[in-house]
Write a structure and sequence with these properties.
Blueprint: H1 3-46, H2 49-54, E1 56-66, E2 74-78, H3 80-88, E3 95-99, E4 103-107, E5 110-121, E6 124-138, E7 141-150
Parallel strand pairs: 1-7
Antiparallel strand pairs: 1-2, 3-5, 4-5, 5-6, 6-7
Length: about 160
């Protein structure tokens, strides 16, 4: 066996247990990240701002990419306290954001979620786009640190 082949074999053998341990941990961490995002939207649907707030990291930031058709996009910062107040204020239709978890990436205490969504007011379609979440794992679990999304009415999945 060549020196290079021996080195590759030894590297594979010594890294295999670490890889197996990481692979076994990944599904439960992925599920925990998804649960935090799901709880955020469950809270929105219920009009429960306390439930939504529990999913957020201190200092969380919300951004939306907006703009009018034919004009350059704008980056809009949403006031989190204003958002939470709106969620908790009774409104005639349920705010129903339906996400699909297209991609969840995790490294240590950082997670990124890429999720197409459709938003409904009650049963009426409003808009669609993609949500991008950045989460951090704190002492009390995964928390949302940043959300940015696109919003459109056409070309939805």
């Amino acid at each position: 066996m060549s020196k290079r082949a021996t080195s590759l074999l030894l590297a594979a053998l010594f890294s295999a247990p670490a890889f197996v341990a990481q692979a076994q941990k990944a599904p439960s961490e992925t599920a925990a990240v998804q649960q935090t995002v799901t709880a955020f939207f469950d809270g929105m649907r219920r009009g429960d701002s306390t439930m939504v707030r529990r999913t957020l990291a201190p200092g969380a930031v919300f951004h939306g990419i907006g703009g009018k058709p034919g004009q350059p996009p704008t980056l809009e910062t949403e006031n989190i306290n204003g958002f939470l107040k709106a969620v908790g204020t009774p409104h005639p239709a349920i705010w129903d954001e339906r996400v699909q978890f297209e991609r969840v990436l995790i490294d240590a205490n950082l997670a990124s979620v890429w999720a197409p969504y459709e938003f409904y007011l009650g049963s009426k379609f409003s808009h669609c786009g993609y949500d991008s979440f950045q989460l951090v794992k704190l002492t009390d679990g995964w928390k949302i640190a940043h959300i940015i999304d696109t919003r459109r009415k056409e070309k939805c999945k």
